[in-house]
Amino acid sequence: MSTEINEGRGRRRRPQTEPNPTPDAAVDAADEMAGDDDAVEIVNVRAYTAPKGRPTAGRRNQVQSENEPEETSRLPGFLDGVVDYVEGSRNELQKVNWPTRTEALRLLYVVLAVTAATSIVLGLISFAFTTLFAAGVNNPLLFVLFFAVAGAATFFGIRYFNRSSSDEPTYPTRLM
After folding, report:
1. CB–CB of 48/26 below 8 Å?
2. CA–CA distance, 162 with 145 (Å, rounded to integer)
3. Of 45, 20, 19, which Cα lies nearest the Cα of 32?
4. Neighbours of 26 (CB within 10 A)
């Protein structure tokens, strides 16, 4: 049974259509349609391109003209890719709109000022924690108080910043 179904599938073909009409036949069909005002007929007219009389040349078979220089590999394999990358990078750098000398100096001063300010702030933080650690080694109660204050500040800070705008409590309780 299944072989009969498969054989039936293999024998099915699309109905053979007429070959492309010649340009004269297409014009004649269009003229007939224009002449009959009452008749409505759908004509499937394909575009027709006259044959050139020779096969279209592929890229493989084309002979390089004398005007175009022959592309040869300057360096084999991996180095070819590196050379192409460097050439592409150089071309992109030539497209960049570089700042003038005064703009570059102004930007340099901004970067140096921000770097100096950040290093001073981080140095002060490091000094404070170093001093706290040195004092905490001698007196462990200082560590306990510091971490209790830091934990409470974290807890209330999170509650404050995550508070909703409504009057409802953030954490519902069973007492209500």
Report:
1. yes
2. 26
3. 45
4. 16
Domain ranges (residues) in the chain: 101-161
How many angstroms separate the CA atoms of 25 and 18, rounded?
12
For residues 174 and 163, what is the distance between their CA atoms, to the nearest angstrom? 19
Q: For the chain, 176 residues long, give each residue's pLDDT as a single digit of tens.
A: 555 555 555 556 665 655 555 656 666 666 666 665 555 556 565 666 777 777 777 777 566 666 665 555 555 677 888 899 999 999 999 999 999 999 999 999 999 999 999 999 999 999 999 999 998 888 889 889 999 999 999 999 998 888 765 556 556 666 65
Q: Which of 165, 146, 166, 143 is closest to 154 using CA atoms?
A: 146
CB 56 within 8 A of CB 65: no
Distance CA 64, CA 163 (A): 75
pLDDT at 71: 59
Distance CA 143, CA 159 (A): 24
Give the Cα separation of 70 and 59 in Å (integer): 15
Our measurement of the distance from residue 131's CA atom to the centroid of its chain's CA atoms, rounded to an integer in Å, reads: 50
Kindly state the tokens that stand for 50: 């006259």
CA distance 114 to 21: 79
